[in-house]
Automatic annotation (TrEMBL):
Protein's name according to its UniProt entry: Thiol:disulfide interchange protein
UniProt subcellular location: Periplasm
Chief localisation class: periplasm
Disulfide bonding pattern of the chain: 56-59
């Protein structure tokens, strides 16, 4: 009984904490409401998008915070990562991500790619360099190189460029909820606060259904 009472008190305290924080989250402060909502990829789900770049140190530093949060998302939320394509190495790394995603192995090497770039000093600037590294992660070299230059990957690259323009982003990491709300670490006040804004907007969209 004591444990039940303690759990109830903690749950109540947590609820009040969330409510108090939610009261401080406002459009124009922590997040921006897009004037032209962008269609989502899975109608019926609440979509959360993270736009990122493998070469971005802030994206790398965000990983330990966002990854555990992603794992706990409820079933009505669809999380999507999209590479930001601002030209040069951004596009090369974006093509790397989209290629691995098309091969359905991106989740297996996502962390390793970030570490290779930010801890091991690898640039991964060419398909051959990428392939050499990916072999060490159990990815077939020839299959990767074939997929990298495929029509399907190039089509997804064009789609990613159009989405970034529609979201009106100018940096990363940035998050979009349900194609309507844009926010980032700076506007939110920090990594943890960014996910609190995401939770608030997810709840807002859920309540609107």
């Amino acid at each position: 009984m004591r444990n039940l009472i303690l759990s109830a008190l903690l749950a109540t305290a947590s609820l009040f904490g969330v409510t108090a924080h939610a009261a401080d989250i406002e459009a124009g402060k922590q997040y921006v409401e897009l004037s032209n909502p962008v269609p989502i990829s899975k109608p019926g789900k609440i979509e959360v998008v993270e736009l990122f770049w493998y070469g971005c140190p802030h994206c790398y530093q965000f990983e330990p915070t966002i990854n555990p949060w992603i794992e706990k998302l409820p079933s009505d939320v669809n999380f999507v990562r999209i590479p930001a394509l601002f030209g040069g190495l951004w596009n090369v790394h974006g093509q790397l991500f989209i290629t691995l995603e098309s091969m359905k192995v991106e989740h297996k090497v996502h962390d390793a790619i970030f570490r290779a770039i930010h801890k091991e000093g690898r640039k991964l600037a060419t398909p051959e360099e990428m392939a050499d590294f990916l072999v060490t992660q159990g990815i077939d070299r020839d299959a990767f190189l074939k997929a990298f230059n495929s029509f399907g990957v190039k089509s997804q690259m064009e789609k990613a460029k159009k989405l970034a323009m529609a979201y009106q982003i100018n940096g990363v990491p940035v998050m979009i909820v349900n194609g309507k709300y844009r926010f980032d670490i700076s506007s939110s006040g920090g990594p943890e606060q960014t996910l609190q804004v995401a939770d608030f907007l997810i709840a807002k969209e859920r309540a609107a259904k």
